Amino acid sequence: MVVLDGTEPPGLEERAARAGVERTIRRSQKLGLNEDFAAVQVYGARGPESMAAWVKISKGEDIARAVDASDGEYSFVVVECTDWKVIPLENLIAEFRRRGKKLYAYVKGKDEVNLAFSVLERGVDGVVIPPGTLEDAKGLLEVGGGAPLQLLPARVTRTTDAGLGERVCVDTTSRLDIGEGMLVGSRAAFLYLVHGETVPTQYIPTRPFRVNAGSLHSYILVQPEKTRYLSELESGDRLLLVDRRGSSRPGVVGRVKIERRPMILVEAALGEEKGSVILQNAETIRLVMKGGEPVAVTDLKVGDEVMVYARGPRGRHFGGEVDEFIIER
After folding, report:
1. How far apart (Å, rounded) are the C-alpha atoms in residues 311 and 219?
2. Higher pLDDT, residue 285 or 114
3. Under DSSP, is residue 174 helix (H, G, I), strand (E, B) or coil?
4. Nearest in space to 329 (alpha carbons), one of 267, 269, 278, 275
5. Is 152-319 in CATH node 2.30.30?
6. CATH topology of 2-143 equal to that of 152-319?
7. How far is CA 4 from CA 109, 141, 279, in A?
8. 232, 253 Cβ separation under 8 angstroms
9. 2-143, CATH topology level
10. Rounded distance between C-alpha atoms, residue 8 and residue 216, angstroms
């Protein structure tokens, strides 16, 4: 993520660093050729760092100009599209991948960030934002994914029948891989990696788009620092798909199915911290063990180690973390 410094207001670099922005660009110090193509100075935390090419895309030949710029001595190329279209961006991303070069996009809002990071699945390598959106930088950073989440193995201390309850199947518009799922739990600060229905069985076909995520009261991680209740999700909502290494990517809810089923409570401990999750009691519902293999909740035993995302006893208000006294059991 890069913030564009167009007016160089006092203290911009400090504000950018607090927002989590990695670098700044002094656009007012263009060193280039014309308004359609320029070289700009890139600044890191310790001052001038490298040069980048800045290319405006308004017609077909501008795409070739951006590709040619990738052959120069620039650390990356920034494209500014006067009219955002998917196909030109697809062409650029594909060509830059083939060349092993970095492509950044100049964007002005969250919708454009979503587009830039989703085209051809991986999307661009980064985005440049104007100073006016700096206060939204944290949210924009989360759209494109960030550093891996730290998942740790927690020891199962108890499994018990939880009677009938309403469980939530979350069907996404993406195909999940083996080892991938969603982070869900009864405590917002202690979430279990619930595996997708991607493991073949002799009884039912796989549902590679689905996570049978658990009881409708549960929290689900939808951004690195934000949760929602499963009961709130609906078509079009965005959330995180996470693998056993903590790598995440954005997902979109295609459908939510809530049905009454037999439930099971799983409780685990990580040091002094404990947390639980209530899931449908069926052999197709799986958590992820320490070694990365999926394990059916019906096969879990006390002492097994499953992957969780635990962040200590912090409170939540409308899905965001707050420092307050709170006890969740």
Report:
1. 14
2. 285
3. coil
4. 275
5. no
6. no
7. 13, 14, 46
8. no
9. Transcription Regulator spoIIAA (3.30.750)
10. 48
CA 212 to CA 34: how far, in whole Å?
55
The residue that leads in pLDDT, 208 or 130, is 208
Report the pLDDT value the prediction gives residue 16, as an integer from 0 to 100: 67
Strand bridging mode 273-280 / 248-270: antiparallel
Closest-CA residue to 243 (of 297, 311, 296, 193):
193
- What is the DSSP code string of 44-76? ETTEEEEEEEEEEESSHHHHHHHHHHTTSS-S-
Q: What would the pLDDT profile of 262-299 be if each residue is shown by its tens digit?
A: 999 999 999 989 999 999 999 999 999 998 899 999 99
3-state DSSP call for residue 227?
Answer: strand
According to DSSP, the residues that pair with 125 across neighbouring strands are: none
- Type of residue found at 177: D
Q: What number of CA atoms fall less than 13 Å from residue 122's CA on the CB side?
A: 10
Residue 139, SS3 per DSSP: helix
β-strands 238-243, 2-5: how paired?
A: unpaired
132 burial (CB, 10 Å; 0-12 / 13-18 / 19+) is exposed
Q: Which amino acid is at 196?
A: G
**Cα-trace Rg, the chain:** 23
Q: Round to the nearest angstrom and report the end-to-end CA distance of the chain.
A: 38
Could you give the CA distance from residue 45 to residue 17 in angstroms, rounded to a whole number?
Answer: 8
Whole-model pTM over 0.85: no
Cα–Cα dist 106/55, whole Å: 10
Sequence spans of domains, the chain: 2-143, 152-319
